[in-house]
Amino acid sequence: MDEQQQIVSPIVKILLGKLRSLHKQNIPLGHLCVDTIELKKLEKLLRSFTAVLLDAEKQQLHNNNVRRCLKKLKDVCYDAEDALEELEMEQSRNITGKVCDFISSSKSPASLKIKKIRERLDAIKIFVSKFCFEVRVHGDNGNVHREREIITHSSFVVASHDDVFERDRDKEDIIEKLEQNNDLDVIHILGPRGIGKTTLAKLVYNDKRIDKIFNIKMWVSYPHKFFEKEIIIDIIYSITGRMENNMEIDRLQEVLRAILKGKKYLLVLDELSLNSIKDWTKLKSLLSVGAKYSKIILSATNQEFLSSEKTNLTYLKYLIDRLSNESNLDLFMGYAFREGKEKNPSLRKIGEEIATKCAGNPLVVKILGSILYFSTDEDDWKYVRDNIKQLGVETETETLSILKLGYDLLPFDLKQCLICCSVFPKDHCFNNITLIQFWMAHGLLQSDDDEEPESIGMRYINGLRRRCLFQDFEQNFDFISFKMHHLVHDLATETAPDDCLIIGSSKAYYPRKAYRHISVVDANLLQEQLFGNRRTRSILFFEMIRPSQSLIGSCISQHPNLRVLDFRNSDMDELPEGIDKLKHLRYLNLTKNTRIKRLPKSIFMLSSLETLLLGGCKLLEELPRDIRLLVNLRMLVFSSKQRCLPKNGIGCLTSLRCLGIVSCYNLEYLFQDIGCLQALRTLIIGDCPKLVSLPSGVKDLSSLEKLMLSNSKRSKKSTKCNLEMEMELQSIKPHLRMLCIDGLPELKEWPQWLLQCSCQHFTVVGY
Fold first, then answer.
1. Are the CB atoms for 393 and 319 separated by under 8 Å?
2. What is the pLDDT of residue 102?
3. Is 137 exposed, middle or buried (0-12, 13-18, 19+ CB in 10 A)?
4. Which GO terms label this protein's molecular function in UniProt (predicted)?
């Protein structure tokens, strides 16, 4: 892959949006903390860059000087975003508090920062003028409008045709071998990435005959560096549905042996990265307690050390063939010309040439076909055709290079969103709710027509799905889960290697760079020099990492410009008071920190916070009234030990779009001023067995579109609860699009409005 491509258009778009927002506020001169002349100069400069960015971002593919120039511009733009946000905060404080002296506004800290940034941009503009860039207007808007039409008028399914080609014979071959009571221990599905190894393994795993052959079947996908403890946890979870995070490895081994003992099992290890025969020996020894004729299916690109001679196992290599030319062409045409799109003869001819050069790799065929579907520009199709190279039998470099051609044709907004996803570990299970909030925290969901950022985010997820860059979609009520193929993850990572870093993925050493997004999979590999970078905007902890209090303190104190801080499942005792120093923070995830008892008062000084996730914090004593100070909060999910939620707390969060009240086992009463949440669109109340009723204010939630009521654990008050819930349901106005009711068995009759309304999704469980 080439040196990192610099994508600057989205951040410039964000800056222009912020400047427009400042102008719209019509702030009186006496309240300004920056010279308006500087702001106008900054806006004029940015607009001058937008005129040539489209051409510059294309020329960088062949010109390193252009690429370096764009990198400088990108860095300055991020600094400008920080400065403008600080200005917005100062403006907000001055409007509600002390008036700024206009005469000295040009000497205020914000004004001085913006002046320096403008001077840096002036210098870059002089350098840019040396290149002969074509002045072009960004043409993404047409594609965006077309995409909105497609998404509005089509189902959520990517394609209506069966896109699993030529795998029935392979499936039958493998199932036949599994049915035989032979000494075969391991079937190793081999082939280059994107060829369909996981797809074939799923076809086998989900076949009904497998349930008759084996007592237990398990599926584990683990593309990271081998850690025995995490593998065991994943296997147990696959069987029981319980995530045993808090057990020591000896106890985990005992639990797994007890489950498997004497059972005939099938274990699928998808993309498992075994580094040595020692790793395999550890794993196989643990699994040996199963009954005779148990089997393992391993789907991996290559594990050369796994052989009968080295492992004392009966071992079968099963090599997947590439698609035939006919299937290859059918698959490409099905994606590039789906849904009745007019088969332009010229585009069809170019498409046939492209499909032939994909060399039978179904993932490449799907992605290129899906991306080209969104373009009717013949030059785009020729760009792919003229630059594509014939895939080698085993090479991945060429595969990534071909996918990169498709990536180059993505709208700039989707490019940036895809790159940000590479900070999440491989095989991470995304969900639409939190990913949209993550994108929002980084300002990636901008609109010129006041479209809600949540709607923009859903449109982007759909756009990436329809281009086959997201896959494995599953929907449950309003929650949509999905993944990125490992090859797509590599594409996003290698396209922007300096943007995102995953500590513990595969490397043992990480060069010191100005990474904007950092995630931690293995805390043992943390290196001090990776911290302290003021440009870092995201820090996320995964895989049951338990950071020390000093590490938590460092994350906060050394990264003042963080937008995202994710300490999910970190088992921390408390969040440091210094959290209020993160004045840019928009997304804070403390989900499943089961030892946290209270929140620091300083957390309520985070005026920019948009997302606060406290679900599963079961020891949290209360959600204080001071939460009302988080005026920009759009999403709140929490658990607590409270019996009732006070008035003038959550009810004051008038920007709230999504509220989740979960696992509040003592909760009997909600806050009475819930009707003040006029912007609320989604309300989820789950696993609150003592909740007696919904407050009468629920009927005043005029924007409510999605309601989920779920009680998985029932108490003695369940009958009273159900009857009172029934009365409240009768009063809710019929503007819901989604309704899910679980665990209200005493509900005697459905409200009349419910029988007449047009809910897109209506689910009833336990009725």
1. no
2. 43
3. exposed
4. ADP binding; ATP binding
Q: Is-contact 628 606, C-beta < 8 A? A: no
Q: Where are the alpha helices (DSSP H) in 261-344?
A: 277-287, 308-311, 325-336
Side chain identity at residue 725, one-letter code: M
Give all strands (DSSP E) within 275-397, no chain letters. Answer: 295-299, 315-319
CA angle, residues 284, 222, 465, in degrees to nearest 5: 150
State how far the Cα of 645 lies from the Cα of 227, in Å rounded to an integer: 43
Nearest Cα to Cα of residue 657 among 632, 681, 683: 681
> Would you state the structure tokens that stand for residue 323, as one six-digit string?
């698609």
Which tokens belong to 451?
């479209």
3-state secondary structure of 449: coil
CA distances from 31 to 17, 25, 40, 100, 705 (A): 21, 11, 17, 5, 39
> 3-state DSSP call for residue 322?
coil
451-457: long-range pairs with CB below 8 Å, 24+: 452/657, 454/634, 454/657, 454/681, 457/432
First-to-last alpha carbon distance for the chain, in angstroms, is 56
**Whether 578 contacts 550, CB under 8 Å:** no
CA distance 650 to 262: 53
The per-residue pLDDT for range 737-764, each reduced to its tens digit, is 888 887 665 554 555 555 556 566 666 5
- pLDDT score recorded for residue 204: 95
Asked whether 373 and 366 are in contact (CB, 8 A), the reply is: no
Residue among 233, 261, 51 at smallest CA distance from 138: 51
Residue 587's beta-bridge partner residues? 564, 611
SS3 94: helix
Measured at the CA of 574, the angle between CA 573 and CA 575, to 5 degrees, comes to: 145
Nearest of 654, 609, 661, 655 to residue 640 by alpha carbon: 661
pLDDT digits (tens, 9 = 90+) for 665-702: 999 989 999 999 999 999 999 999 888 778 888 888 88
- CA distances from residue 144 to 16, 379, 382, 466 in whole angstroms, order as listed: 19, 19, 22, 13
Cβ contact 320:362 at 8 Å = no
Q: Please give the helix or strand (H or E) that residue 658 lies within, else none.
A: strand 658-662
Query: What are the tens digits of pLDDT across the range 284-322?
Result: 888 889 999 999 998 876 655 555 445 566 778 898 988
pLDDT of residue 141: 42
Q: Which residue has the tokens 């599926």?
A: 219
Residues of the chain with pLDDT under 70: 1-5, 24-35, 92-108, 136-165, 225, 274-276, 301-313, 339-343, 389-395, 505-512, 523-532, 543-545, 712-734, 743-767
- From the number of C-beta atoms within 10 Å of its C-beta (0-12, 13-18, 19+), residue 34 rates as buried
| Residue that is written with structure tokens 């068995």 in the block | 745
Ramachandran category for residue 293: left, alpha or beta (phi over 0 → left; psi -120 to 50 → alpha): left
**Residue 694 three-state SS:** coil
CA dihedral 465, 136, 18, 580 (to 10 degrees): 60
* Strand order from edge to edge, sheet including 471-476: 430-431, 479-483, 471-476
- Per-residue pLDDT at 31: 52
User: What is the reported pTM?
Assistant: 0.89
Q: H/E element holding 407?
A: helix 397-408
* HSE-up of residue 707 (Cα within 13 Å, Cβ side): 22
Q: Which amino acid is at 401?
A: S
Rounded CA separation 148/392 (Å): 37
Query: What distance in Å separates the CA atoms of residue 638 and residue 617, rounded to the nearest whole number?
Result: 7
Question: Token pair for residue 198?
Answer: 């996981």
